[in-house]
Every structure is written in structure tokens, then in C-alpha cells.
Design a protein that fits this description.
Elements lengths: L3 H4 L11 H10 L1 E5 L4 E3 L7 E7 L2 E6 L5 E7 L4 E3 L1 H5 L6 E4 L3 E7 H9 L2 H27 L2 H13 L6 E3 L4 H8 L3 H13 L3 E3 L3 E4 L2 H10 L2
Antiparallel strand pairs: 1-8, 2-7, 3-6, 3-8, 4-5, 4-7, 9-11, 10-11
Length: about 220
Amino acid sequence: MKNIDQICPKLDVLRKLRDQDRAELTRLVIHKSYQQREIIAHHGDIWPYFMVVEKGLISITKVSAQGRLLGALRLHVGDAFWSPSFLDEKPLPASLEAKEDSRGWLWHREELLPFIRSNPEAMWDLIQVLARRMRHASGFVEELGFQPVAGRLARLILTMAETSDDPQINRDMTLEEMAAMTGTTSVMVCKLLSRFADKGMINVSRTDFELIDKDQLGTLAKASN
């Protein structure tokens, strides 16, 4: 991962700020380290930060009142997260957890927002970021309604594989998290993984997946559109 002064000019919103403003933000950045499984922020917390992942993997999860995992989003190195609390100072609708030892660059709302408010181009960039988030959420809901579960799971596995050139994919996501991301249950995910293995698409072990027939997975994902 590059240094913060190299990353800022490439980040949405921050890239629109003046050079001197970005230089000031590199001075104001908060460097945070998190241990594996450490909760960064709980559901219901007011967490008014903009965060960029410097190292590791961070999961954003939503859990129902009954304890069921309803949704999950993963932040990899270089990914940025605008906390809803940053924008409206209201409680978080989800929790943030470090899935492995991680580091992040954080800016508090009170430090960053004045720079954005004084720059119309940065404000417009932030609006576009929020619009993309809404489109992503809308697409996710639509996919849950119209795409069969097998196709959604195939798409998820292919997405996981995009982060590595190695056909071996580390199983750093639990069955519950995979179920949340595909709108089904952990039992169904387990059954479908076994079915994919029986059909020669993947090999499954306790620690990883191995892609055997990426084309067949791709066909299954596309056929579900």
C-alpha cells in the first residue's frame, strides 16, 4: 500500500481538494491498528469517520434482532468507507470488524467536513459516491429477488477469485457471511458448495476453495441474470 500522501489524490472526494488542503489532511489523519476479530464499531454506535483500509480486511455486517446475519460487505486494502454517522451523526446501522490484523487511515467528521463543504467539486464527488452506494444497494435487492441462489453464490465465488491470480481462494468468509451476501441460509450455502464440487466446478476444503471450472461457474452466474 502506498503512503497516505500518494493515496489521497486518487480517492473519491479527496481528489477534488486543493493540494494544500490534502497536505493538511495528511497531517490530520488518524492511524489505527486492529487485531483480528476486533470490533471497530458496533451497530448503534455513532462512528463519524471516513476510513481507508491501509492493510488487512474489514467486514461490515448487519445482524437481525434474532441474531441472523442479514448482510455483509468487505473492505480490502485501498477501499474507502464513508460511515453513515459521518454524514448525519446518527447511529451506525451495521458493525465493523477486522477479519484479520488490519490498519486504517481515519478522518473525523469535524476535521474533514469543513474541507469538503468549502469545495463544490468535492461536494459533488461525495454526492456521486452516495448515488453509487444507493445503486449498489438497489441492485443487491433486485438480485435477491430475481436471481436464483446458485447463480448468486457462483457470482460471489468468482468475485472472491478476482482479488487473486491463484486458483486457491482462502476461505476467510464464514458460511453465515456467504449466506448473508447471497440472501440465503448457511445450510443452503453448504449444500450448493457440495453440489458445485460434485459437478467439478470447485474443490472445497476447510481452509480454501480451488477453482476447477471457472467457465462453468461463469455460465451459471450469467444464466441467472
